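Bench notes, afternoon.
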Amino acid sequence: MRDLDEFTVTDETLSQMANTPNPRFKEIADAAVRHLHAFARDVNLTPEEWIQGIQFMTAVGQACTPLRQEFILLSDVLGLSAVVNALHDKKARELGSQSSLLGPFFREGVELTPAGTQIVEKPTVPEIVVYGKVTGNDGTPIPNALVQVWQTSERGLYDMQERNGESMDMRGTFQTDADGNYHFRTVRPLGYSIPMDGPVGAMVFAQKRHGMRPSHIHCLIGAEGYRELVTALYFGDDPYIDSDTVFGVSESLVVDSHDDPNSPIPGLRAVHYDFRLAKAAPGESGRVGADPTKLMKAAE
């Protein structure tokens, strides 16, 4: 037996974990221990601060429901989701369109709808049309690609917030035609504040951050043999376009709506965007995040 100090306890912890049979789990757990211990030493963490941290993480877990994923929100506002996205993209054999965050409001099970469908049940502002092609990196059109989209309303709320998850709105699933074309009708979503009524919001407020996301439409696009693309289209005239609180905006994803003679629905302002999918390795997925209802069920 030996007395342990703030340095030797790290070695002892790693020694007790040395027989972990799963090599990847061991690699991740060892690194987590080393970095957590180094963090505590670096800031000279006090017992009171440690307890406050435990209370914060407990509150984040307690805030999670089938309709609200506070841990994904925490990951987003700390930039961790963006880091994981960037690391994942670096491992790709090739890159297509720029990825962005899936976020905590994705929902599975949206039925396939015909091209041109309005995804907002009762729009109260002028409609716009979003259209373009889905192609490979070489420009070859990809037929039968699935284009899943979701967004806030013109009031800045997702259906999970406005309807408490009881029904779906402002979502659509479309399939590209033989030439890779897609289009749908919607309204311009309103930029919004992340939920500020929970522990993550309290942290953001304490950091004097605005907590705002610029206006955007989420997109998840997949096709057989291609890397699934998780991304979003951001409206460039939004006042928060340069300071997204979850670090999701890339210059290549910035769009605007305007009069467009090539629009598949004449008379509506249009957003034109062509998506490029990269070839996938066997079994590869590009998704970062999940339907929050699935996470809660997995934890039960």
